[in-house]
Amino acid sequence: MSNNEHPSYLEKASRFICATRLDDLSSAARERGRWVIADSIPVIAAGMRTEEMGALVARQLANAPRGNAWVIGTGQRANPFDAALLNGTAGTWLELDEGNLFAKGHPGIQVVPAAVAAAQDMRASGADLLLAVTLGYEVSARISRAANIRLSVHPHGTYGVIGAAIAVGKLKALNQPQMRELLNVAATMGMATSRKTLLEGSTVRNIYTGHSGYMGQMAVRLVEAGFTGESDGVQSIYGGVLSDTFDRERVVAQLGEEWLITKSYFKLHCAGRYAHSAIDALEDALARTPGKQIDPSRIERIDVSAYSLAAMLNGKNITTSFGARFSVPFALASILYHGKSGLSSFDERAVANPAVQNLVSRVFVTENPSYTAAFPEKQFCDVAISLTDASVIKGRCEVTKGEPSNPHKPEELQGKFFELGAPAWGKGVTQKLYDGLMNLEAISDFRSFADELTL
Predict the structure, then answer these.
(1) What does the angle CA 452 – CA 108 – CA 119 come to, to the nearest 5 degrees?
(2) CA dist., res. 62 & res. 68, Å (int)
(3) DSSP category for residue 385
(4) d(CA 135, CA 80)
(5) Could you give all domains of the chain from N- to C-terminal order, each with its CATH number?
(6) pLDDT of 5 higher than 70
(7) What is the pLDDT of residue 24?
(8) DSSP 3-state assignment of 202?
(9) Cβ neighbourhood burial of 117 (10 Å; 0-12, 13-18, 19+)
């Protein structure tokens, strides 16, 4: 295939991105896109409060060019590249960011930081920001769905580069040939990521999402400068490097009719998504007990049966707060001990608590192949709590809370926004930010809106 020949799916995808207007989105896609943006911003602010992020911000901005984009949670501004890098990195630190089982990852936190930073820099409208985020999310999520990315690869920092590039390219009104070139250029700019980082609690994993926002913008800059990609870079990477199989036509099947963004989930527990199925099963078990609590000293053992991705989170050697977020045994033990699943249940003090660690040793996680076969449409998980009196309390999850077919209540998502935002900004600023994001289409100049708020 010559450089002047392009697969039809890239033609269709780039035409769709360039031609689609906000009014072309379904009402559900618009609503979910608005919430993906709104959910991401306070999650970033909360993650920015970690010691490591504070140190990274100081070093990254020490000699960096200034700019108009929020470094969310710091009260500082930066150029769009550095802002997206830092915000994206902070956004995954606490494991509270939005995700999508069908996209096999977390598209939102890889697209939103770049799009928000570019919108501030360019004085884009809120409507244009909403459209750009939704399109970047949608097309990149479809590319991931069409591939069978190796399990050893962490999905952050891969297709997210494409999503961020699309969003920024849409804001910059790239034409169709440029957008098609952008897909190919961005496809080859992902990272060699490792899923083992999360299993070991290695915090380098958090830069993967920051990389997506930074390199997505770089891909746009390269195309604007005349750089070119392979004739089908998407196929090369997602059908030969990260994955051995790639269904090109699935990328564009029902494009504009089926919206993957509407199949996303939001998180209320600060733990890896697959651990949420076990947490839901635990909550189901607790609902069957008097007072909805169990004295940990009465617990002989806890058996968890789950689909493969949840069963992978079976680590018991938990030594850090970040590592605790990817352990089903720790999640269940800490929630049982503390009686809740808030941030404090996964902090360093919880990790150091010998009573929690003792309970961790009594949790056993195994895979149920039939549950794996049902995934991702169903997320089956069983929890059986065996007590010292020989009784057993059982709980079950079929669809994890937060999925579209088992959604969180709007007031729960609003509560999360204020719970994370108010400590960083105060109630007044948090309320003004929330009101603006819930009425994003009414904002004519996103930089002017942002300039009224110190985040």
Answers:
(1) 35
(2) 16
(3) E
(4) 19
(5) 8-268+415-451 (1.10.4100.10), 273-397 (3.30.1330.120)
(6) no
(7) 97
(8) coil
(9) buried
